[in-house]
Amino acid sequence: MSPSSRKGETVPPTTTSTRTRGAPQRLGDRVFSGASVGAGVLILVILAGVAAFLVAEAWPALWADSSDIDGGDGIVLYIWPVLFGTLLSAFFALVVATPLAIAIALFITHFAPRRIASLLGYVIDLLAAVPSIIFGLWGAFVLADLTVEPTRWLEENLGFIPFFDGPASTTGRTMLVAILVLAVMILPIATAVIREAFLQTPRLHEEASLALGATRWEMIRMAVLPFGRSSIVGGLMLGLGRALGETMAVAIVLSANRNTVSFDLISSDNPSTIAANIALSFPEASGLSVNTLIASGLVLFAVTLVVNMGARAVINRRRDFSGAN
After folding, report:
1. What is the pTM of this model?
2. Which stretches are tagged as biased composition: Low complexity (predicted)?
3. Which domains occur in the chain, in start order?
């Protein structure tokens, strides 16, 4: 006699019955599922359409004779200075904004009294609603004047560093001011993302660290920061994306297109950025000049896509992190 046919034994029921497996979905579930899939496909279609448009419009400039491109040096030497300015300004803006965003998020979530934290969080979120042109005007007419004397001091005392080689600008409208403006602009979105990540840190992990004798800073270093690491990267990459594509603020501060590559941050001889160059040059462009500007836009599109893909790869590597491993 087989074990399954012994008297008194019952066959355990299956976890999923045939009736449940074959039950039709509700109308609301089908609508929601279809809308979600459609939205995802629509994003891919729009992204592919933008890429196709940029490639099609930039194609004449990519294969044009070097003498026909503005400046007469070819498409590569036309785009390289503004690409360098874009990467330079965005990188240093991220360097300035990163410690500020993390410090503000930590202060709001772990140090400030509840009322002050709520007010400060509201003010930080409100900064994201300020138009970029307002930041540009503030940088050009307020921050630029305030940096004239400090940049002269930097030239006199730290001129051996390529970033402060000088000569210092007498107007203050330099790449340094553009970097500071971009740092302020990306601060709200980075701080908001990081703050929400810190608030999601398991309370038991924090209390366990304190119970084992850790100070508040040691608790933050061992429990809070590791838990929010992927969100820190995500928030900063969102800010970096805005810095790479910012147009009006940089255009107002620099107010000129210069075909130069320089690490000097305090002189007037600064490279422009791709977005600012397009904004300042497009109204007077025609023919092949338009295709050249669109080609530079294609490069900016590719750089932004690579940055976001890199950030997504970093986040995916830590998506299973729970704070306890």
Report:
1. 0.81
2. 10-21
3. 29-317 (1.10.3720.10)
